[in-house]
Amino acid sequence: MKDETLLGPWVRRFLLEHLVAERNLARNTQISYRDTLALLLPFASKHQGHAIDRMTVEDLTPSVVRSFLDHLERDRKCSGATRNQRLATIRSLARFIGMRSPVHVAWCAEIRATPFKKTDKAGVGYLEKIEMDALLAQPDRRTALGDRDHALLLFLYNSGARADEAATLTIDRLQLGAQSSVRLHGKGNKFRSCPLWPVTATSLSRLIANRGKSEPVFLNRNNQPLTRFGIHRLVTQYAEQASKAVPSMAAKRVSPHTIRHTTAVHLLRAGVDINTIRAWLGHVSLDTTHIYAEVDMDMKAKALARVDIADLQPKPWQRPLPSLMTFLKGL
């Protein structure tokens, strides 16, 4: 690097050398880092009055970073969680530069001192059984696209797959037979296997008939792979239709991830142990899976119903003794 003060070469090394070559992060994670810098650099350039290709590392001051974070929340209407995600990228870039350029160690410390904002823990949204059934009933299965959409919704509910996992699923990862299953490629470049219901296997068998093993399972009307954005659009459209039949859905924000949460909650209600659900969804830690036990009011109500209220009443020998003044008044 000829000029270590310029920011541009550092950004290039961060994206190509660090994220890809050194850390081998997932493609979606790389895109998230890239998108953050694509928003930050034009903002910082305008704020400092310098062309992006002439900006120095020192031009990215802590005050510019704070202004950028305020811009995300105020102008772009981003949530606190998104703000913190963008800040994590900026702090990671600062650490990358500071570890490789001693002259920028002090600058790195100042950037990394920018605090994360405390945010409310978002609740987990999921669908009740009647709501999920209404969603599955929306596609017109008399048409080829409707049959595909029904198979997609059924697959998401059965497997708890993320939208990206469904979009990148190929036919060779399906095992359709007496004991049907699917092998999903998830976060962290990890694979996991999930069993499939007979009805799911039947729907998928019709969908992939007479197609090559390397082809994607879910195709759009132009026979191109369905993207995660396309899957999100389909789910939201059918959820809007289903809300007319089940009004309680109108107040819920339904997405492919909502169906994933629904799978977990319904498995938990069916008596599946929490560790199996962790493996089913591909969670690294049990702490992530435990959130479903916390949000399920139905299970909490059943647990409360098993408690005998009589057992909670204090026995005569457990009641507190009267105070001295109360005892004297009774004499």
Summarize the structure.
The protein is mainly α and 331 residues long. It has helices at residues 7-22, 27-48, 62-74, 80-100, 105-112, 129-136, 144-159, 163-167, 198-208, 228-245, 256-269, 274-281, 286-289, 291-295, 297-305, 324-329; strands at 174-175, 181-185, 191-195.
Q: How would you describe this structure to a colleague?
A:
With 331 residues, this protein is mainly α. The protein is 56% helix and 4% strand. The protein has 16 helices and three strands. It has helices at 7-22, 27-48, 62-74, 80-100, 105-112, 129-136, 144-159, 163-167, 198-208, 228-245, 256-269, 274-281, 286-289, 291-295, 297-305, 324-329, and strands at residues 174-175, 181-185, 191-195. Strand 2 (181-185) and strand 3 form a beta hairpin. Helix 3 (62-74) packs antiparallel against helix 4 (80-100). It starts with 6 loop residues before the first helix and ends with a helix.
